[in-house]
Write a structure and sequence with these properties.
Elements (H helix, E strand, L loop, with lengths): L11 E2 L3 E8 L4 E9 L7 E6 L5 E4 L12 E9 L5 E11 L4 E10 L3 E2 L3 E8 L4 E9 L7 E6 L5 E3 L13 E9 L5 E11 L2 E12 L3 E2 L15 E9 L18 E2 L14 E9 L11
Parallel strand pairs: 2-8, 10-16
Antiparallel strand pairs: 1-3, 3-6, 4-7, 5-6, 7-8, 9-11, 11-14, 12-15, 13-14, 15-16, 17-18, 18-20, 19-20
């Protein structure tokens, strides 16, 4: 007599594609790939290959065997670890004691990237006051940017007001402003370098401001000579600004004699720096004979 026993066959089934979305460059993301045996005999995975290697890897190793029939399954871990920005694709092919299965893989490498101006000037700041200026930090990359540190190479009149540093600056042109303050204590140029660390690289910004101050100069004396009693004589008193900031006259008075006065109804303001001047009228109107003096 002849005899044989019919047995079932395994059948490998997997998803047609697996997408990872955005993954930070030099990091990784895992996805679960479920392998299902839709056949009627145990399934053994015998091998796997990628059409493009380097970015995608597969775990575990060795591959699972003896996946039960009629809906048994095993989960594989597929990892995407991009080393550069942009779309990465590959095809994973699984081999078995039955059919082969193919899965299309894709992930996009993203990274933040810091951009700042090379230099920022706060401009002219009057000594004893302060000026503010924004240093714009722009994210030209494809992932959110975090500023992790901000420091100066010198300790001087230029300081940072923004604390803590900004985080989660949007990709593709998002920005945040760091506010720097300059409070000069003397005339002249002040410079410093702001070093910024971030998840998208580092940047250095050269900062400057100029301390300026007004400085009043006037003649030490003004002589009217002889003036007839009960009349008056006017002379011009030139006020010169020899400083580096505009000069405002805030008050003037004459002490020592009442025959001297300032007939101008208001004092000049905004006298230009570096030699700008304004003229004041001073009046002598004696009411008696004699020599008079005042300051």
């Amino acid at each position: 007599p002849l005899a044989c026993t019919g047995t079932g066959a395994p059948q490998l089934s997997v998803a047609g594609s697996l997408g990872f979305g955005d993954v930070l460059v030099n990091s990784s993301s895992n996805q679960t790939l479920r392998v299902t045996n839709t056949g009627s005999a145990p399934l053994n995975l015998t091998g796997a290959s990628f059409s493009v290697g380097g970015v995608f890897t597969l775990q575990p190793s060795p591959l699972p065997t003896n996946i039960a029939a009629n809906g048994g399954f095993a989960d594989l871990i597929v990892r995407c670890a991009p080393t550069a920005e942009g779309l990465a694709t590959s095809t994973l092919t699984l081999f078995s004691n039955a059919n082969a299965g193919s899965v299309s893989l894709s992930c996009t490498g993203i990274t933040p990237r810091i951009s700042t101006p090379a230099s920022v000037s706060v401009g002219s700041v009057v000594v004893g006051s302060f000026g503010l200026k924004a240093v714009r930090v722009t994210n030209t990359g494809t992932a959110p940017l975090n500023v992790t540190s901000a420091s100066f190479n010198l300790t001087n009149a230029i300081t940072l007001l923004t604390n803590p540093p900004p985080t989660n600056i949007a990709a593709n042109g998002g920005f945040a402003d760091l506010i720097v303050r300059c409070a000069p204590s003397a005339e002249g140029l002040v410079s410093n370098t702001l070093s910024i660390g971030s998840t998208g690289g580092s940047a250095s910004v050269s900062l400057t401001c100029t301390g300026v101050a007004a400085r009043i100069t006037a003649p030490g004396s003004l002589g009217f000579g002889n003036v007839r009693v009960n009349s008056s004589s006017n002379l011009t008193l030139r006020i010169t600004n020899t400083g580096t900031a505009p000069l405002n006259l805030t008050g003037a008075s004459v002490t020592g004699s009442t025959i001297f006065s300032l007939p101008s109804p208001s004092l000049p303001t905004n006298i230009a720096a570096n030699g700008g001047f304004a003229d004041l009228l001073v009046r002598c109107a004696p009411t008696a004979m004699g020599t008079f003096s005042a300051r």
